[in-house]
User: Which sequence fits this backbone?
């Protein structure tokens, strides 16, 4: 708006005896202000708002103001969202009679203007006097979950009521059509967005955003646990990639004493085992005999402890015979140290924090299986040439806190990562570091100080002949190797045994299999690094591996949520010498037309937003398995956008940098900005809506 026009508007207000009444008269006789965007009406209203601030005597009170407020409230149903705040401020609507405000909102609601009613309620803070289920139901049917979140954002009691309502709708016996029936004629109604799966995801998002106790939503939690059970049965009986003890730990912790889940467990056991196997696991999980099917109950009566031990021993012998097919630790068992005291840990520090040291670093945490909360590191593995240290982080943190030394562990970790004379090796270190920050909040933003960190994930896709299909063909029986296991197979000849990967790493004592797995995961990084440095050309790498790694380093560490942008400084120490060069610039800028993505089904809002900006987007349907994203990405050369647990699975199935984890707690606009910045996508005015009909 030109300065001349602004000055003319302000002179006009100064000449009016009653500027507030004058503005209303203008609005009532014109329709220009009803248009979205910066219309002349918008300009006049915002200038009056500024003018009033400079002339405090103008605002009115009493009967005259109430009459003006009544006229304004009658116009709000036609008011664009960007004019609400200025009009509320100018006419002091927050001082109007509350009952009258509620009636105005109710009138909007009855006219079917649900979005407008909700927005006005938020602006005037009317939510405590409204029925949260009534206000939010039509918004959810119109796929306006973000507005629902804003509606309850400042009111914990309404958050709980909304969550309890959503949980009731997710009860298996509840008929969702009972909710949708009154809204059959609703404009912009999206029935495909209103089902138990979508509602369940919304519940988990709200639980995490508002930090509400998940026990408030038993139906959603039970359904999530049931999906976990199905996943565990698939891993154990179909993929055969979990040991029996590991599987049993998770089954027991998932089911607990929940009678409904115990019933589901028995049904799954009967589907995958015979009656005797079902009885053995029912006994192991302490399922009440009276709840078992007759055949299983009879087997349970005949089951003696001798038979159970015999069965377990047989299974263990079978599994141990397979170990020769996997990578084996080249150091003796007595050189693996499980550290639970600070006295032991200080001795570990002295060895690790030596100039020129090369350290393999890995971390383990209990898998969340999609439950609320960020994973907290339960075990930190540090591998040196001759020994491996396994640090029991929960125990060490507890001891440090009890001794008033909360900064003790973060201080050690920061010293390790910031020391340029020590080379730290990892695989997918950004994900590990974000979990470490969730465990030790004192480490937040410390990743900016990292030096001499080598992420072998950056080398992974450069290695010749490295693909999941190759590993699959060689073995024929096991699922194809992927991620670090595939790299180990290619470089060392045998893959990692990943059957303990999804262990309950918080349970103590750790099983022997867990200790060996954790040590192998860290130690194999040393062997891979040494092999690649000795003979990089035989693996299709440049003769100077250090230079190859530098090319993959980002100029600045990415935010912790951007898990697939790896920071890989050149290594230090004796194993691999090479000139240090400056980190390259961010990726070359590209236009939205050159950027194609496939969005996982929990990011459909992000997908639609990116499409509006001209990006080539494919969206997974709600019913699609997450793995379909990898198929589409490989076939069509797209980048995968996903979030949470599926990221760990999907990123190993596509090339490096072709899978990106988005912060699911952010709104679509913030998610889109995160994606555009990460891939350096430059949006111009001509791109906006270029793909829309």
Assistant:
């Amino acid at each position: 708006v030109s300065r001349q026009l602004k000055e003319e508007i302000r002179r006009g207000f100064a000449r009016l005896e009653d500027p507030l009444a004058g503005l209303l008269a203008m609005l009532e006789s014109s329709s220009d202000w009803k248009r979205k965007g910066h219309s002349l009406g918008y300009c006049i209203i915002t200038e009056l708002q500024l003018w009033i601030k400079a002339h405090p005597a103008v605002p009115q009170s009493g009967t005259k103001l109430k009459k003006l407020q009544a006229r304004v409230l009658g116009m709000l149903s036609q008011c664009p969202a960007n004019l609400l705040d200025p009009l509320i401020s100018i006419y002091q609507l927050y001082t109007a009679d509350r009952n009258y405000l509620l009636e105005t909102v109710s009138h909007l609601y009855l006219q079917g203007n649900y979005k407008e009613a909700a927005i006005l309620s938020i602006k005037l803070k009317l939510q405590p006097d409204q029925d949260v289920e009534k206000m939010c139901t039509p918004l959810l049917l119109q796929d306006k979950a973000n507005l629902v979140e804003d509606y309850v954002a400042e009111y914990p009691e309404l958050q709980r009521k909304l969550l309890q309502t959503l949980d009731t709708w997710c009860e298996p016996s509840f008929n969702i059509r009972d909710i949708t029936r009154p809204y059959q004629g609703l404009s912009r109604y999206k029935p495909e967005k209103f089902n138990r799966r979508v509602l369940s995801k919304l519940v988990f998002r709200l639980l995490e955003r508002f930090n509400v106790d998940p026990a408030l939503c038993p139906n959603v939690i039970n359904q999530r646990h049931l999906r976990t059970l199905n996943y565990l049965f698939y891993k154990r009986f179909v993929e055969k990639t979990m040991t029996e003890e590991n599987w049993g730990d998770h089954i027991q912790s998932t089911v607990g004493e929940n009678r409904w889940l115990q019933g589901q467990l028995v049904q799954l056991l009967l589907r995958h085992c015979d009656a005797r196997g079902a009885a053995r696991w029912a006994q192991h999980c302490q399922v009440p005999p009276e709840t078992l099917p007759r055949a299983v109950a009879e087997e349970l009566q005949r089951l003696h402890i001798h038979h159970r031990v015999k069965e377990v021993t047989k299974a263990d012998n079978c599994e141990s015979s397979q170990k020769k097919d996997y990578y084996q630790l080249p150091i003796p068992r007595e050189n693996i140290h499980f550290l639970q005291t600070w006295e032991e840990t200080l001795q570990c520090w002295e060895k690790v924090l030596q100039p020129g040291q090369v350290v393999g670093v890995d971390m383990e945490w209990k898998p969340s299986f999609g439950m609320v909360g960020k994973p907290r590191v339960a075990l930190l593995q540090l591998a040196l040439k001759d020994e491996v240290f396994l640090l029991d982080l929960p125990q060490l943190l507890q001891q440090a806190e009890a001794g008033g030394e909360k900064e003790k562990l973060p201080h050690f970790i920061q010293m390790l990562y910031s020391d340029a004379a020590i080379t730290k090796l990892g695989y997918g270190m950004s994900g590990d570091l974000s979990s470490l920050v969730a465990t030790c909040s004192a480490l937040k933003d410390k990743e900016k100080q990292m030096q001499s960190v080598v992420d072998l994930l950056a080398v992974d896709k450069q290695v010749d002949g490295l693909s999941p299909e190759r590993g699959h063909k060689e073995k024929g029986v096991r699922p194809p190797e992927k991620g670090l296991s595939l790299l180990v197979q290619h470089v060392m000849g045998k893959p990692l045994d990943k059957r303990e990967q999804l262990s309950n790493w918080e349970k103590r004592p750790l099983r022997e299999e867990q200790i060996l797995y954790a040590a192998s995961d860290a130690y194999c990084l040393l062997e891979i690094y040494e092999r690649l440095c000795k003979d990089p050309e035989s693996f299709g790498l440049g003769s100077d591996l250090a230079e190859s790694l530098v090319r993959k380093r980002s100029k600045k560490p990415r935010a912790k949520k951007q898990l697939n942008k790896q920071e890989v400084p050149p290594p230090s120490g004796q194993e691999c010498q090479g000139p240090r060069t400056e980190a390259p610039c961010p990726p070359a800028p590209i236009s939205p037309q050159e950027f194609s993505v496939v969005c996982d089904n929990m990011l459909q809002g992000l997908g639609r937003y990116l499409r509006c900006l001209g990006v080539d987007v494919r969206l997974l349907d709600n019913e699609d398995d997450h793995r379909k994203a990898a198929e589409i990405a490989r076939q069509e050369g797209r980048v995968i956008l996903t979030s949470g647990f599926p990221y760990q699975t999907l990123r190993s199935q596509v090339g490096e940098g072709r899978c990106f984890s988005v912060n699911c707690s952010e709104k679509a606009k913030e998610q889109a900005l995160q994606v555009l910045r990460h891939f350096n996508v430059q949006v111009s005015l001509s791109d906006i809506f270029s793909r829309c009909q």
Strands lie at 336-339, 358-365, 377-383, 388-392, 423-426, 453-455, 596-599, 616-619, 639-642, 659-661. The chain is about 50% helix and 5% strand. Confidence is low (pLDDT under 50) at residues 308-316, 468-477, 550-584.
